[in-house]
Amino acid sequence: MGIPRHTRIILIPDHDQSTREYGITRGMVVFLIILLVLAATLMTLLMVSFAGKHDERQQIADLELELVRAGQAVENMNLLRTELVRMGEIQERLLMMLGVEDGGSASADSLAAWLENTPGSSAEAMRRAAALVLSPVPNRWPAAGFLTNEFKPGNVARGVTPHLGIDIAGSVDTPILAAADGTVARAGTDEFLGNFVEIQHGLGYLTVYGHCSRIAVNKGDRVGGGQVIGYMGKSGQASATHLHFEIWKQGEAVDPRTILKGDPPQS
Questions:
Q1: What is 93-156 written as a DSSP string?
Q2: Measuring CA to CA, which residue among 103, 160, 145 is closest to residue 231?
Q3: Burial class (CB in 10 A: 0-12, 13-18, 19+), 91
Q4: Are the beta carbons of 100 and 128 closer than 8 angstroms?
């Protein structure tokens, strides 16, 4: 059924008033229908657009929240990095106070090497430092016997070969004792010292025991002062049975006679 050419609209009031008539042409009806459709379409588009804008605003809000969280995480990481650096500096100062510092590689005349195996963590370094500071100065004679060679600083420029320790002669397999509590830093065989043991003590002290016939400890062992760590022999570059004994402090060789009292006990 098509739209009539003319449409008459009659309004009848509730009261006794005259009726009113209005005439609408077909063109006006079509126009009103089109206008209504356009209005409905525009409303739908506005609602869809509003919903999209709402989603975009929510996404923007979520991204802003993630950005804030990421900024906080970066700030926390920077604070943690700063704290780790500060803790490292404190650790270095503490280890320096305890005399724990690198002393370089072993020389041809000595196997003393201070902290050759670097701690793998701050906790390990602090554990070592705590163990070291509790150790006394190595002032115990390491073996019974007779002194046959004293400490000589030497003078390389003048051709005077240094002797960075003392030699104690005795019979084969005379027990060799730790000069103080400490931790075995190294134990093994060297071309010059033969079978040797190095013990790390407190306050930056390190002792070296060379020319052993055999050794009785391993690297990492905790030893007490007076504990047997090996037996006297003539391994390495030695012509007679004796113990070559060195004391190092913070990477410098010192004369053991300035620390040990008297003479070694007689066997």
A1: HHHHHTT-----S--TT----TT-S--SSHHHHHHHHHHHHTSPP--S--SSSEEEE--B--BG
A2: 145
A3: middle
A4: yes
Instruction: Report percent pLDDT > 70 for the chain.
Output: 67
Sign of CA dihedral 217, 219, 222, 224: positive
Annotated domain spans of the chain: 6-73, 122-258
Q: For 160, which DSSP code? A: B
Superfamily of domain 122-258: Glucose Permease (Domain IIA) (2.70.70.10)
Average pLDDT, the chain: 79
Q: Which two tokens stand for residue 50?
A: 């509003």
Nearest to 253 by CA among 153, 143, 132: 153
Cα(93)–Cα(118) distance, integer angstroms: 16
Whole-number Å distance between alpha carbons of 249 and 101: 10
Contact call for residues 132 and 201 (beta carbons, < 8 A): yes
The closest alpha carbon to 200, from 258, 104, 105, 114, belongs to: 114
Q: Can you tell me the mean pLDDT for 98-102?
A: 47
Condensed to tens digits (0 to 9), the pLDDT of residues 124-158 reads 666 666 555 555 789 999 999 999 999 998 777 78
**C-alpha to C-alpha distance for 147 and 176, rounded to whole angstroms:** 14
Residue pair 233/212 in contact (Cβ under 8 Å)? The answer is yes
Burial class (CB in 10 A: 0-12, 13-18, 19+), 166: buried
- Residue 249 pLDDT greater than 50, yes or no: yes
pLDDT at 94: 62
Q: What is the separation, in whole angstroms, between the first and last Cα of the chain?
A: 136
